[in-house]
Recover the amino acids of this structure.
């Protein structure tokens, strides 16, 4: 199941990367998003591992944050306001960063015993951060 999920997400990521790579400075945008995603993941995971704090209190806030972003994204489908789209991408980065802290803390403190589910959850957080960073960096790197 994990391979199917990651395969489908990778299948969807291919055309997105091709679109960004076709830009004038597309390779720089993609590599910056990749580096930023790696720095965010490594930094937050290291923080959760070193401090051994329990971030389980974030669960409810993160769930509400995802619901607000989902509603905002649905509304922006009809409004098509570019600034709102960038704000949603920034909110997704913050919320997924919180999920990295939450999930890593649960793995370390024994709250998560199903490691397949934990792997998928961390992968989804990393994927969403990468795509949102691509969106923000791509918007600010164009000539328009």
């Amino acid at each position: 199941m994990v391979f199917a999920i990651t395969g489908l997400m990778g299948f969807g990521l291919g055309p997105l990367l091709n679109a960004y790579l076709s830009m004038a400075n597309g390779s720089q945008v993609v590599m910056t998003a990749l580096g930023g995603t790696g720095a965010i993941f490594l930094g937050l995971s290291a923080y959760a591992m070193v401090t051994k704090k329990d971030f389980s209190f974030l669960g409810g806030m993160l769930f509400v944050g995802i619901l607000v972003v989902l509603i905002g994204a649905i509304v922006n489908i009809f409004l098509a306001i570019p600034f709102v789209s960038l704000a949603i991408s920034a909110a997704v980065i913050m919320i997924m960063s919180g999920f990295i802290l939450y999930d890593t803390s649960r793995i370390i403190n024994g709250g998560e015993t199903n490691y397949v589910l934990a792997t998928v959850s961390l992968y989804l957080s990393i994927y969403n951060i990468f795509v949102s960073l691509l969106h923000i960096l791509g918007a600010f790197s164009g000539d328009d």
Residues 2-141 form one domain. The longest helix spans residues 82-108. DSSP finds five helices and no strands in the chain. The radius of gyration is 16 Å.
